[in-house]
Amino acid sequence: MSLSMQLAGISRQWQANVRLRIAVGLAGLLVGLWLLLVFRDWRDALAEGYRTRSEYMQRLRSLAAQPEWLRRAQAAERMRKGLDATIASAPSLGLAQAEVQSWARERAAALGGQVQIAGAPPAEVEAGGGLWRIPVTLSGAAAPQQVVQLMQTVETSPTLAVIQEASLLNRENRTFSMTVVFHYRIGARP
Question: Which runs of E-coded beta strand occur in 10-121?
């Protein structure tokens, strides 16, 4: 059976069957109404998106017109540059770890002979950024005044060092534990 014969048969059925024409007409009407609703929803979503973006843009313009934002941005930039200046740099991660271990040994010697040093694995702060966190833990027995002096040494360090965790037990043996995290920019020239 060829295509022209099939089309001729369909055409005869279409002309002979009124219910078929009505059903196809109703189906077409329903599809048309559905498309109309879809386009209306799409138009409403576009209008809502435009209204939201316009309001956001207006808020940004009103904020940009306020002069204190420029001062705040300049102050934030100065603070960022100051913080960047305190980050130590080393040509390699191994040298940075050696510097941290050397610092820890000096502090342990100043506290006395009963202080242990435990280095933890370094971790990159941002992937590919070259900024690394190098933690070291000092623990052992020391007088509370010595531990406070150690904390002050970390706080007044010219390079960026943060006390991540500290504990002090002021009992008979006076034990303490302090984890200090140093930040290093690896690969940069010191």
Answer: 88-90, 115-119
